């Protein structure tokens, strides 16, 4: 398993993190080192083993499906980098 | 009384009740110590006004009687906890300026118990790191020093460990995803416990890897850990993974009597190249527990060596999902956009500017292991290995083991910057003894047990059965008494 700069660029794109072209070879090399380390997992016999979904055997609590909170638009927007007229503002999405 | 900031929680609690001291006096002593310790870079947002206001309220409550144990005790808060009206940025540039409108459940419980928040503490960015070197605020510095070098306090709860060790608070909160409470406690000669997964609510704690993250106290003594954990723990409807179990009076369980307890010593925790002094400390710890009447038994946890690689699949996978929320829309940093930049450029530039290198690395590794075609080979396989790691521990407990004794770290604190050229994997090895505990969801505690040949603190870790923090704390208490670690860093800052 070896990651090339093309794969590194694709991963960066999927993660929505801008990586300059000249940084891609170093990034690919780091991925390869980390994935090389992870590769040891292929030695383990996992036949018939269930993947863990919950580390403690517990049933998730249920609650009534009703609104219990809310009604404070100002607080929700108070940390937004750009909020206008009660909305989050972003660059134009639809042409 | 002098040096009030040097008191333990238990000593201060008792002094408050006797009327020998007030919460305002304790708080002022801590605030003065904090102001004199900027060189350690432990506190990144100081909150003296809040502290004094809460201290006054605590004094009034104490006068009325019937105040909880934590009432009036000044503590530091890791920057990962959202605190209403006080900057909370997980030591990340991407949360620059973020001021929560709400309070995390754990910090609210502490506040309700009357604890006094002194400020927010330094940490590795998003709790990803073992040296506090990935913080946007700069490195926190270990108060322990043996030569001209500045040493790491460990991470990710490095600011918490520094603050406790340097008496800049009576105790502090930490969080632990792979060792982030226990490793810094070991590096600073302090006590840190990560409780069973689900013991403390994660609500309002900025998420790293949700199936592994747990909050816990960082303190000067085991007794203090028992007192503070009780105040932090408990069921919370806002965290569906928090356990609906009664929280015992942990302090009342500290008898120091461990006669007949079975202590497991796992042979897989002695990797090649383990420094001799760490091996000796471990042997000495086992001998102390034996002298106290416990049976020490060698055990095997055969999947130990796979915990670290499995963690570096699962934790980045969860991080890539959790950190997707930092998009420059709802809170925190947004990059300046060029003409013609659309929403994707906004996301990509914002995240490139806001996140540090280690965080980006883990997000991208997580993105990769979850991507189509690799999900089964990496993520599902790692989750199966995690099942086997947990089974190793269950088998040991089923065979009668009460607690497991291991070293806390493979070395004493190292110099800041010394690992900067190393492979990321080298840094990950710091957590080799602690990470298994998160993978299995178990409680684990670090107790200072001795000094290295250089004069730096070394810790031992005890791992307990799920939900039996009380029994674990009692074993740790016996170890603490036998080890008799009393050294403190000489003040140089």
UniProtKB/TrEMBL annotation, chain A:
Top-level EC class as recorded in UniProt: ligase
This enzyme's EC code(s): 6.3.5.-
Domain of life: Bacteria
Key words of the record: ATP-binding, Ligase, Nucleotide-binding, Protein biosynthesis, Transferase
GO molecular function: asparaginyl-tRNA synthase (glutamine-hydrolyzing) activity; ATP binding; glutaminyl-tRNA synthase (glutamine-hydrolyzing) activity; transferase activity
Entry-linked InterPro entries: Asp/Glu-ADT_sf_sub_c, GatC
Catalytic activity: L-glutamyl-tRNA(Gln) + L-glutamine + ATP + H2O = L-glutaminyl-tRNA(Gln) + L-glutamate + ADP + phosphate + H(+); L-aspartyl-tRNA(Asn) + L-glutamine + ATP + H2O = L-asparaginyl-tRNA(Asn) + L-glutamate + ADP + phosphate + 2 H(+)
Gene Ontology terms describing biological process: glutaminyl-tRNAGln biosynthesis via transamidation; regulation of translational fidelity; translation
Record text on subunit structure and interactions: Heterotrimer of A, B and C subunits.
Sequence similarity: Belongs to the GatC family.
Function: Allows the formation of correctly charged Asn-tRNA(Asn) or Gln-tRNA(Gln) through the transamidation of misacylated Asp-tRNA(Asn) or Glu-tRNA(Gln) in organisms which lack either or both of asparaginyl-tRNA or glutaminyl-tRNA synthetases. The reaction takes place in the presence of glutamine and ATP through an activated phospho-Asp-tRNA(Asn) or phospho-Glu-tRNA(Gln).
Identification of the protein by name: Aspartyl/glutamyl-tRNA(Asn/Gln) amidotransferase subunit C
Gene: gatC
TrEMBL record, chain B:
SUPFAM superfamilies: Amidase signature (AS) enzymes
Domain Amidase: 25-473
EC assignment: 6.3.5.7
InterPro entries according to UniProt: Amidase, Amidase_CS, Amidase_dom, AS_sf, GatA
Catalytic activity: L-glutamyl-tRNA(Gln) + L-glutamine + ATP + H2O = L-glutaminyl-tRNA(Gln) + L-glutamate + ADP + phosphate + H(+)
Signal peptide: none
Keyword ATP-binding: yes
Classification via NCBIfam families: gatA (TIGR00132)
Name the record gives this protein: Glutamyl-tRNA(Gln) amidotransferase subunit A
Organism in which the protein naturally occurs: Donghicola tyrosinivorans
Gene coding for it: gatA
């Amino acid at each position: 398993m070896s990651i090339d700069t093309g794969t590194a660029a694709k991963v960066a794109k999927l993660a929505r993190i801008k990586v300059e072209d000249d940084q891609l070879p170093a990034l690919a090399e780091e991925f390869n080192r980390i994935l090389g380390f992870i590769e040891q997992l292929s030695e383990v016999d996992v036949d018939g083993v269930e993947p863990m979904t919950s580390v403690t055997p517990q049933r998730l609590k249920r609650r009534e499906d009703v609104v219990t909170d809310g009604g404070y638009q100002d607080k929700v927007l108070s940390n937004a980098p750009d909020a206008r007229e009660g909305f989050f503002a972003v660059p134009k999405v639809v042409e | 009384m002098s040096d009030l900031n040097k008191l333990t929680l238990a000593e201060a609690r008792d002094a408050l009740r006797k009327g020998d001291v007030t919460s305002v006096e304790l708080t002022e002593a801590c605030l003065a110590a904090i102001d004199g310790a900027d060189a350690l870079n432990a506190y990144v947002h100081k909150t003296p006004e809040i502290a004094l206001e809460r201290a006054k309220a605590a004094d009034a409550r104490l006068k009325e009687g019937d105040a909880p144990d934590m009432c009036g005790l000044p503590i530091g808060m890791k920057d990962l906890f959202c605190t209403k009206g006080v900057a909370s940025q997980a030591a990340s540039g991407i949360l620059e300026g973020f001021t929560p409108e709400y309070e995390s459940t754990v910090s609210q419980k502490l506040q309700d118990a009357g604890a006094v928040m002194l400020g927010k503490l330094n940490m590795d960015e998003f709790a990803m790191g073992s040296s506090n070197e990935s913080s946007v605020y700069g490195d926190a510095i270990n108060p322990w020093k043996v030569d001209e070098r500045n040493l790491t306090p460990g991470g990710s709860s490095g600011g918490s460990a520094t603050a406790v060790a340097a008496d800049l608070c009576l105790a502090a909160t930490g969080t632990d995803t792979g060792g982030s409470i226990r490793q810094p406690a070991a590096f600073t000669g302090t006590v840190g416990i990560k409780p069973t997964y689900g013991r403390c609510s994660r609500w309002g704690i900025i998420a790293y890897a949700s199936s592994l993250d747990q909050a816990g106290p960082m303190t000067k003594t085991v007794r203090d850990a028992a007192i503070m954990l009780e105040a932090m723990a408990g069921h919370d409807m806002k965290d569906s993974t928090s356990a609906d179990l009664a929280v015992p009076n942990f302090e009342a369980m500290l008898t120091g009597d461990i006669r007949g307890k079975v202590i497991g010593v796992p042979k897989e925790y002695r990797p090649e190249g383990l420094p001799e002094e760490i091996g000796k400390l471990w042997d000495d710890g086992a001998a102390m527990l034996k002298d106290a009447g416990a049976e020490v038994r060698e055990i095997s946890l055969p999947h130990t060596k796979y915990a670290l690689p499995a963690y570096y699949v699962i934790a980045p996978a969860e991080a890539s999902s959790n950190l997707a929320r930092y998009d420059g829309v709802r809170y925190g940093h947004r990059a300046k956009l060029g003409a013609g930049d659309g929403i994707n450029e906004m996301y990509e530039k914002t995240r490139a500017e806001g996140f540090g290198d280690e965080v980006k690395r883990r997000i991208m590794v997580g993105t990769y292991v979850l991507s189509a075609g690799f999900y089964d080979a990496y993520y599902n396989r790692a989750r199966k290995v995690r099942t086997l790691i947990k089974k190793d521990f269950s088998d040991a407990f089923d065979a009668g083991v009460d607690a497991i004794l291991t070293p806390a770290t493979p070395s004493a604190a190292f110099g800041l910057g010394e690992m900067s050229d190393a492979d990321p994997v080298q840094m990950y090895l710091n957590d080799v003894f602690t990470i298994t505990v998160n993978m299995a969801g178990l409680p684990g505690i670090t107790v200072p047990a001795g000094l290295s040949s250089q004069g730096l603190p070394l810790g031992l870790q005890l791992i307990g059965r799920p939900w039996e923090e009380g029994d674990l704390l009692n074993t740790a208490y016996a170890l603490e008494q036998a080890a008799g670690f009393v050294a403190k860093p000489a003040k140089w800052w």
